[in-house]
Amino acid sequence: MTELSISTAAGLFDAIAAGPREGRSVLMLHGFPQTSLVWRQQIAALAGHGYRVVAPDQRGYSPGARPERPEDYRISALVDDVVAITEELGWTSFDLVGHDWGGAVAWWTAHAHPSRIRTLTVVSTPHPGALATTLRTDPDQRERSRYMIDWRETPATEERMLANNPEELRSIYTGKVPQDSVEAYLRHLSQPGALTAALNWYRAGRPDGAIGSIDAPTLYVWSTEDSAFGPAAAQETGQWVNGPYRFETLQGVSHWVPEEAPETLSRLLFEHLGAHGEYGTTANAHLPILGR
């Protein structure tokens, strides 16, 4: 893997990349409280089969793209970042993958810029329309989402999360994320202003408009032990996809799918990209057999 600095009008984004520059382009978006490193194993797997994969540290996580105001983290700005980053890379179309908040950005990007998205893969995060529906109708999902309201407190949330080595922030990973990754995330988010910037994603307010259905071929991966997103929103998501749709449920896996079930997720990515794309069959020709 190599490190990149991607310059846009919004600032300088740090990123990691791998694979031949002429390979089929894949952009991977991380969530909270992680960085592009969450995709290490998927990047290595895809790059090893000829894909060109780039994973940026998103707005607020990259020191060079860290505005101070919460309103600068509205969803339209995050989508604009995706477009700006891929334009700087010279990509007119690409496969888009997102987890957690990165999944939300991925859904909105696929809605706002359908001509750019070859395929969409979202891990954990239901379609925003499905989530909104279940927040109105499903008490279980309302309870699961209560933390989003709690984390809007400032600066109380930052102080609490970073206290005691930082005990509360560390507990979010629930023992399911490798320890070396946890320490890397904690070092990153302990930098001045970093955690506030990451929490500003929750403080930015409602989206600028409504989101509709998705036309791109879509893979949605949900896990039964996800504490943030329940079965009602996961099952409702298919109602918001018009294009080819695949819904995969991982039994006994927590919210932290890319690191807890890396081989399974890589296999699902290979299958999805291979089914929808100009040279997917070539990229899949020598895939190892991976267990679910």
Can you characterise this structure?
The chain is of the alpha/beta class. The chain has one domain (2-280): Rossmann fold (3-Layer(aba) Sandwich). It contains 14 helices and 8 strands. Strand 1 and strand 2 form a beta hairpin. The longest helix is centred in the first third of the chain and has 15 residues, at 75-89. The radius of gyration is 18 Å and the shape is globular. The protein starts with a strand and ends in a 9-residue tail after the last helix.
List the helices and strands and how they pair.
Blueprint: E1 2-8, E2 11-18, E3 25-29, H1 40-47, E4 52-56, H2 75-89, E5 94-99, H3 101-112, E6 117-123, H4 128-137, H5 139-144, H6 146-150, H7 156-162, H8 167-171, H9 179-189, H10 194-203, E7 218-225, H11 231-236, E8 245-254, H12 257-260, H13 262-275, H14 280-283
Parallel strand pairs: 3-4, 3-5, 5-6, 6-7, 7-8
Antiparallel strand pairs: 1-2, 2-4
Helix pairs in contact: 1-13, 2-3
Decide which structural class fits the backbone: alpha/beta
What is the approximate shape? globular
Spans of at least 5 consecutive residues with low confidence: 279-292
Question: Total strand count, please?
Answer: 8
User: Number of helix segments?
Assistant: 14
- Radius of gyration (Å): 18 Å
Strand order of the largest sheet: 1-2-4-3-5-6-7-8
**Main beta-sheet annotation:** 8 strands, mixed
- Per CATH, what is the topology? Rossmann fold
CATH class: Alpha Beta
Total count of domains: 1
H/E series: EEEHEHEHEHHHHHHHEHEHHH
Beta-strand residue percentage? 15-25%
- Helix content percent band: 40-55%
What value does the average pLDDT take?
A: 94
Level-2 CATH architecture: 3-Layer(aba) Sandwich
CATH superfamily: Alpha/Beta hydrolase fold, catalytic domain
Distance between the termini: 26 Å
